[in-house]
Amino acid sequence: MLSESNSVLFWMVAILLVAYFCLVVFIGKKGNSHSNSMSGFATARGKVSPWLVGASFAASYSSANLFIGVPGLAYEYGTSVLWYTLGCFGVSWIGLLLFAKTFWRYGKKFGHVSTLPEWLGKRYNSKALQVIVTILILFNIFYIVGQNAGLATIFETIIGIPYEWGIVIGVTITVLYIGLGGAYAQMVTDGIQGFLMAITSILLLVSLFWTIGGGFNVFTELTNKLHAIDPVLTAAVNEAGPYNSALAIAAVQFMLFSFILMPHLLNKILSIETEEELAPFTFSAGLVLFFISALTVLAGLGARVLFPALDSADSAIPVYIIESFPTIIAAIMIVGIISAILSSTDSLYLGVTTSIGNDFYRVLAPIFNKNLDSETLDRRSVNVAKISLIFVGLLSLWISLDRPDSLSILIQFSFSAIISGLLAPITLGYFWNKATNYGAIVGVIAGAGLYVVFTQFNVIENIYIAMFFASLSSFVAMGIVSLLTANESHKELVLKKTT
């Protein structure tokens, strides 16, 4: 039975969610006209303002990890988690600035590509590589599971909806509007969600002045109170957590620098129509990302002071919001966090399913049916992507029913496996004229394979260090194989610096 205050919160959140659901479905229907072709479904190139695409990039970056998982780690391990926050904005944004223009120019050189696997396939002139990278991207299903669990945790903690029903609600909403409007719906809704998330993050920061106290010395007060609970909570390195050494912290920064290479993020760059639009895109992405990444973790630390005995660290932010804000403000913030989770989930669904349609079916179908014309192939590819959306949604729902121990660790495992395989082929593909298709294939398999071996067989327990050494191995393997297989024709695929 809900208390009176919880009942009011429940109905406020329910009303706001219904309004939000109607909005995203409307946007999805509006985007339906742009999603009849594979290019339109995957990127909606030129149909969305670069400012909104930038906010969408930041929203897709954030996910349940920054609003639930990382504050949960801060609740558990203290200020050492700030190393992660530092990298989220500073290091990742630098990575975006370095990679965006060249990645976009390559996309133009190869014609309008729609996905990262297609980009790599054309860079290395390899359909096999395109298919292999598509298979690797299926690791994102575990990322989606983390988002589903985060959303269900919000529903369960705040308004009393059972965890299982929270999973069903989240999957249904996301699959519906992505199926209707493709990339257009995803980017417009995510752009709006990005600004909502920034406002929510600012409110979390401001709240510390009345929850923790100390006036303008609020951060000193917060540090002192954490230290009184346990001095380890204010240490720069916490040996009990994932940020347990200088090497682990360096590996975190390496991972966050590389994170912008995730397929569901790089696809945002492919949606930009002109090179001049890259400037507002990157500025908008960096500004929104700063607010989202730098502020939420502080509320996780505040929750440890105010509520030191929570059963689940991942519930730190939901509990903090309920106890620290008036009901109407709390309801708006909860919807903001729900939108944060949905914004990453929809990008991941879109990335996985467009790759299935564009990089799996579209590549393999002509092998079995040589009479397919390009128009029919494109139409069927879109249909395959939309149908696969339903199956991926059901698969993620089924896996999500078994609640993960830590959202952050699950999410970071999934994207670290992908980055370990993709980092070498993308970066060497930019600059090295001897990078070959055989080298890239070996690099993808070696990087992702070794990461799974390192983590699943406890060869390297720290997931960040495991990713660093798996990625390094990928570079070495790709470099050796490329040197053994390089010829003059590979140099023609390198982007000329004068373009």
TrEMBL record:
Its main location: membrane. It is found in: Cell membrane. PANTHER family: SODIUM/PROLINE SYMPORTER-RELATED, SODIUM_PROLINE SYMPORTER. Keywords: Cell membrane, Ion transport, Membrane, Sodium, Sodium transport, Symport, Transmembrane, Transmembrane helix, Transport. InterPro entries: Na/Glc_symporter_sf, Na/solute_symporter, Sodium:Solute_Symporter. The chain crosses the membrane at residues 6-27, 48-69, 81-100, 128-145, 165-185, 192-212, 246-266, 278-307, 319-342, 384-401, 407-431, 438-457, 463-486. It is a multi-pass membrane protein. It holds the Pfam family SSF. GO terms for molecular function: symporter activity. GO terms for biological process: sodium ion transport. GO terms for cellular component: plasma membrane. It catalyses: L-proline(in) + Na(+)(in) = L-proline(out) + Na(+)(out). It comes from the Bacteria. Belongs to the sodium:solute symporter (SSF) (TC 2.A.21) family. This is Sodium/proline symporter. CDD domains: SLC5sbd.
